[in-house]
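Q: Please design a sequence for this.
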């Protein structure tokens, strides 16, 4: 079936049934931005064509197969089935102060194959198209109507390396920013990447107001390659040069993601090395606790006192630091855990 995202199919329907284009525009606005349910959005059309429209045009591209709500925090894990019959996951995150964010996937699986991330163990890796990406947000908004909430921040931090699917992620971002679709501010959409310098520069050029997060995790090249195999292609000096060029061009402060792994990258000497590497760059360091996955039983999370000491050392050296709490850990929806349902 055609979907609301297929503008040619919608236009064909409009011409066949002689529907006022402003009525279709209002339907799209109410569904994507107005906080209305599907049934309420359909009421923007004349009653005489509603049934025919619903038979011809679906408002969904993905099929929601499962919703899992955390019992301990404000996370909700969503499992969708794609038209190709693959499962993709995303996460709704509700902050205590009321902000609602969403972690969306850009691929099924991930070719970066980070040892600490469940998505990297999913095969085969399949790109999602832009519609499959933004439909995760649209359907999340439908679920949030009952809570009087809407997704206000979108992070490309779910399954997949966004820049391995750069064209579709770029198209999805444009739809999220477009007032005719979701109307989100560019400042409220962020890409998280393992660090692909050329793509980072293209992104900052296309979306100069959108923040970028870099999964760094260590400034030891050999250790980084053991954690992120694709890092062999992108040495740390090349990555830093890209960050420097982005800073000179006026890009927003970069978010540096640093996953703390017990006995691997959490010493104070490694904190000092991180400070030296980031010297002079406009960055905010996000320290992340490791969330266990079955595929990497040898990895353990740094204990909280040591995480605090690592963060304190960075602050003493002048860096801005946040020690993150991972929402959704009890439902396998925390950072690095997505993909548990991808094989099913």
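A: Design:
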């Amino acid at each position: 079936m055609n979907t609301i995202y297929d503008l040619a199919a919608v236009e064909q329907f409009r011409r066949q049934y002689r529907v006022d284009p402003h009525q279709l525009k209002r339907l799209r606005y109410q569904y994507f931005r107005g906080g209305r349910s599907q049934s309420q959005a359909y009421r923007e059309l004349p009653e005489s064509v509603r049934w025919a429209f619903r038979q011809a045009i679906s408002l969904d591209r993905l099929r929601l197969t499962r919703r899992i709500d955390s019992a301990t925090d404000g996370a909700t894990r969503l499992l969708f089935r794609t038209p190709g019959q693959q499962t993709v996951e995303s996460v709704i995150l509700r902050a205590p102060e009321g902000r609602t964010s969403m972690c969306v996937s850009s691929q099924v699986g991930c070719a970066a194959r980070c040892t600490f991330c469940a998505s990297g163990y999913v095969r085969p890796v399949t790109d999602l198209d832009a519609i499959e990406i933004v439909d995760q947000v649209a359907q999340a908004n439908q679920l949030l109507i009952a809570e009087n909430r809407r997704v206000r921040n979108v992070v490309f931090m779910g399954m997949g390396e966004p820049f391995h699917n750069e064209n579709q992620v770029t198209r999805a971002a444009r739809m999220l920013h477009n007032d005719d679709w979701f109307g989100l501010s560019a400042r409220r959409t962020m890409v998280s990447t393992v660090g692909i310098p050329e793509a980072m520069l293209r992104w900052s050029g296309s979306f100069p107001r959108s923040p970028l997060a870099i999964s760094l995790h260590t400034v030891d090249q050999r250790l980084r390659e053991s954690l992120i195999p694709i890092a062999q292609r992108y040495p740390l000096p090349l990555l830093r040069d890209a960050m420097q060029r982005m800073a000179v061009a006026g890009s927003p402060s970069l978010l540096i993601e640093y996953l703390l792994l017990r006995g691997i990258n959490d010493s104070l000497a490694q904190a000092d090395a991180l400070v030296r590497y980031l010297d002079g760059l406009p960055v905010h360091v996000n320290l992340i606790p490791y969330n266990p996955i079955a595929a990497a039983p040898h990895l353990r999370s740094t204990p909280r006192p040591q995480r605090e000491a690592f963060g304190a050392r960075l602050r003493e050296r002048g860096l801005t630091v946040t020690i993150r709490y991972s929402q959704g850990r009890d439902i396998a929806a925390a950072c690095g855990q997505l993909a548990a349902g991808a094989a099913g």
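Q: Thanks. Anything notable?
A: Residues 2-58 form one domain. The chain has two domains: 2-58, 63-331.
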